[in-house]
Amino acid sequence: MSARKTAEHAAERETPVSVRLQKSILSAIRAKARASGKPASRVIREMLELMLRMQRFPGIVFLEGPAGRRAHLAGTGLDVWEVIGLLHEYRDVAKLRAGFPHLSPMAIQVARAYAEAYPEEINAFLELNDQTPKQLKERLPWLEARP
Q: Using CA atoms, how far apart are residues 69 and 55, in angstroms rounded to an integer?
C-alpha cells in the first residue's frame, strides 16, 4: 500500500463520530476496555467491525483464545481457517463433507467467502498451525506444549 493510500485509509478509519449510548451499554464497554487495556473508542470500533462482519457473513461468530480473535463457524466446532485448511487438504467439497458431514454446503461457502474477504487473517492462522512445536515456542514463549 502506498504512503498516500495508507494515510487516506488512516484518516478514514479515524473519522470522529458522536453517538448517544444507554448508560448500561457505555458501562459494559468501559468494563471491556478496562479488562483489555484498550481505549473505549477502540473497543467500540472493534465491536462495530465484528458486528458488520457477522452481518455480511451469516453464521460467522468470533471467539477469543490464546492465538487471538478467530472467525468461527457457529455450530460446527471449526474456525474458518480450519475449514479452509481442510479444503486445501481434501481438495474437494464432496470429500470434505464425507469426512465432516456436519459441515453444510452453506457453511463451507461462507468460510470460503470470509477467507477471500480477509485472506491475511486466515493465512496467518494457517501459517501458525503449520509451525513445529519448537517454532511455536519461539513465537509464543508462554505456550506450554503437552505430550
A: 17
Is the predicted pLDDT of residue 85 greater than 80, yes or no? yes
CB neighbour burial string for 110-128, b if at least 16 within 10 angstroms, e if fewer: bbeebbeeeeebbeebbee
pLDDT, one tens digit per residue, over 20-53 is 999 999 999 999 999 999 999 999 999 999 999 9
Burial class, 62, CB count within 10 angstroms (exposed 0-12 / middle 13-18 / buried 19+): middle
State how many domains the chain has. 2
Q: Are residues 45 and 63 in the same domain?
A: no
Q: Are residues 78 and 100 in the same domain?
A: yes
